[in-house]
UniProtKB/TrEMBL annotation:
<feature type="binding site">
    <location>
        <position position="34"/>
    </location>
    <ligand>
        <name>Mg(2+)</name>
    </ligand>
</feature>
<feature type="site" description="Transition state stabilizer">
    <location>
        <position position="153"/>
    </location>
</feature>
<feature type="domain" description="Endonuclease/exonuclease/phosphatase">
    <location>
        <begin position="4"/>
        <end position="252"/>
    </location>
</feature>
<dbReference type="InterPro" id="IPR020848">
    <property type="entry name" value="AP_endonuclease_F1_CS"/>
</dbReference>
<dbReference type="InterPro" id="IPR005135">
    <property type="entry name" value="Endo/exonuclease/phosphatase"/>
</dbReference>
<keyword id="KW-0378">Hydrolase</keyword>
<comment type="similarity">
    <text>Belongs to the DNA repair enzymes AP/ExoA family.</text>
</comment>
<feature type="site" description="Interaction with DNA substrate">
    <location>
        <position position="252"/>
    </location>
</feature>
<dbReference type="GO" id="GO:0006281">
    <property type="term" value="P:DNA repair"/>
</dbReference>
<dbReference type="Pfam" id="PF03372">
    <property type="entry name" value="Exo_endo_phos"/>
</dbReference>
<feature type="binding site">
    <location>
        <position position="151"/>
    </location>
    <ligand>
        <name>Mg(2+)</name>
    </ligand>
</feature>
<dbReference type="GO" id="GO:0004519">
    <property type="term" value="F:endonuclease activity"/>
</dbReference>
<dbReference type="InterPro" id="IPR036691">
    <property type="entry name" value="Endo/exonu/phosph_ase_sf"/>
</dbReference>
<feature type="active site" description="Proton acceptor">
    <location>
        <position position="252"/>
    </location>
</feature>
<dbReference type="InterPro" id="IPR004808">
    <property type="entry name" value="AP_endonuc_1"/>
</dbReference>
<keyword id="KW-0479">Metal-binding</keyword>
<feature type="active site" description="Proton donor/acceptor">
    <location>
        <position position="151"/>
    </location>
</feature>
Amino acid sequence: MQIATWNVNSIRMRLGHIQQWLEKNPVDVLCLQETKVMDEQFPQDAFPGYTCAIAGQKSYNGVAILSKIKPTAISVGFAPILGAEVIGDLDVQKRLIHIQIQSIEIINVYVPNGQSIGSEKYEYKLCWLRALYQYLSHFTSLKLPVCVCGDWNIAPTDLDIYNPENKQDHIMASPPERQAFEDFLSLNFQDSLRRFSQESEQFTWWDYRAGSFRRNHGWRIDHILISSWLHSRAKNCWIDREPRGWEQPSDHTPVILELDIENIAILLN
């Protein structure tokens, strides 16, 4: 089973790219972030063979999961697990969607960027991350197979930034953000890419400005985390840089996880 994540920065702008990529990489599950369309405008017919689970928002945010396997459950936002009275307005922005396929819980997240350290948006990001910790704790407490994909807007370590000097005062690399990521790992999640490689310069995002992609001035902020049940079943995880070099690309590129699983439901029983 192959599961991929990709912040496409507008599904309307990148529809052809997604179709082209899926032709070459027919993954079983594709998690998309920043779709930037309402649910009724999502181009489901453009993905034959996939069931589309969608949580859209006009012009901003938006997440979706394309799956070859029909989900047995779909939920949107924190509220179905944590309760609306607990999460307040955190579900107004469409940033989280969850599906269950063959007893695997797949969660697609688009973590807020945070704008700048100390800003109101930064505090919102930290609040959102705390809610995500509570949300994921629910699944791990049940010892379920969980795969959490998405744009986390966090570079976990200095290995994940092209020029890490003095980045502790930079959004996406501040100590509170990195601590939040460590807190997720403390739930016995594993950073899939780092399971297979400790090399530097494995980036998933390059700014559109200053020739960042050409100069490989990137950050690794897109991640796939897997719970303990899936650790030994992970065969490989890699970054596909090719789409970032296409004409009018997203500023992110796909990350792919391969799991050694044929029918997880049988294995769990």
